[in-house]
Amino acid sequence: MTTTPARRLTRKGEQTRARIVEAAADLMFVRGVAGTTLDHVRAEAGVSSSQIYHYFSDKDALVRAVVAFQNDAIVGQHERSFATLDSVPALRAWRDQIVAHQERMQCQGGCPIAALGSELGELDLDAREGVAIGFHRWQAAIRHGFEAMQSRGTLPAEVDVETLATATLAALQGGLLLCQMHRSTAPLAAALDTMLDHVESLAQ
Amino acid sequence: MTTTPARRLTRKGEQTRARIVEAAADLMFVRGVAGTTLDHVRAEAGVSSSQIYHYFSDKDALVRAVVAFQNDAIVGQHERSFATLDSVPALRAWRDQIVAHQERMQCQGGCPIAALGSELGELDLDAREGVAIGFHRWQAAIRHGFEAMQSRGTLPAEVDVETLATATLAALQGGLLLCQMHRSTAPLAAALDTMLDHVESLAQ
């Protein structure tokens, strides 16, 4: 597996590369990575094969870019929207937004980062590590809110916010998987509500 | 997608069919469903192609049998080992067994039922429904323990054991995904410990 070396791109080059990655991300979310060929991506992005190979040496390189794209899209979205996930009401609003998003998606597809990780976790070391980076960043974004609660005294000093943030991300991911399989947001709501009840029970 | 009609099998026929399903389950866990061909299954099970087609009309039919097999293997194992998951110490022992199993697996592969669901959830309606049946059965097995705790008075009557069981399964599934991606049992332990701390905080 080789990587096309990073190089400066013109603005137009950046746009073309972004269009390819976004098309690949959409296709892989709907059809899976195995079910998506470079030819599908070419058609969806409206580019030529030689344009794809100009930016990506092979499909593996494109997959790595898709993982990074989804990390930025999803965890970045979390970071922008919930920069201050530092109170129980803020956490409840976060939960509401996630459940509403899944309602809009009709519970289809689950978490795009988890879908990539689950499909590629044992097949593509780089992809798994990319997904792990995304989850690490997501856990940190959640943890920062708990740390802020702790420094304000809303959460007691003895609460292990590292563990609590990991458990919150796990509740979200497990809830999303059950939501996708059961085609219902009820298990997602159950997972997040129970987790946030626990956080609230620790708060003072 | 057609199903070979159910029919009586001889004992030898049952054994051959079981060998095919088990070989397919092992291969699909390691290589994914997309990466597993009927030819791989034939070689792994040591059977002929015509033997496979005697029992399964096509790969989709075999996949359905693999989902049912994993439901029985994993949820059935839970039901047999934890028929009485009806106390906090029993729940902690359950958590220890899951974490120890992942240690032995070197955190590879995640939950076989979840892996099938995540790969096939949007591609194969029957497979998704089969996975949903497995998760429903698993949730019920966990809920039965909470119901027993409630009827003994260990959990207060006002606790919603349905929600609590769903959240516990979500914590397990999310924890297994993070465990697989990070190649560490720490996030799995964090997810389950936090969930069981919450159950313990509700117990009286």
Automatic annotation (TrEMBL), chains A, B:
<keyword id="KW-0804">Transcription</keyword>
<dbReference type="Pfam" id="PF16925">
    <property type="entry name" value="TetR_C_13"/>
</dbReference>
<dbReference type="InterPro" id="IPR036271">
    <property type="entry name" value="Tet_transcr_reg_TetR-rel_C_sf"/>
</dbReference>
<dbReference type="Pfam" id="PF00440">
    <property type="entry name" value="TetR_N"/>
</dbReference>
<dbReference type="InterPro" id="IPR011075">
    <property type="entry name" value="TetR_C"/>
</dbReference>
<feature type="domain" description="HTH tetR-type">
    <location>
        <begin position="14"/>
        <end position="74"/>
    </location>
</feature>
<feature type="DNA-binding region" description="H-T-H motif">
    <location>
        <begin position="37"/>
        <end position="56"/>
    </location>
</feature>
<keyword id="KW-0238">DNA-binding</keyword>
<dbReference type="InterPro" id="IPR001647">
    <property type="entry name" value="HTH_TetR"/>
</dbReference>
<keyword id="KW-0805">Transcription regulation</keyword>
<protein>
    <submittedName>
        <fullName>TetR/AcrR family transcriptional regulator</fullName>
    </submittedName>
</protein>
<dbReference type="InterPro" id="IPR009057">
    <property type="entry name" value="Homeodomain-like_sf"/>
</dbReference>
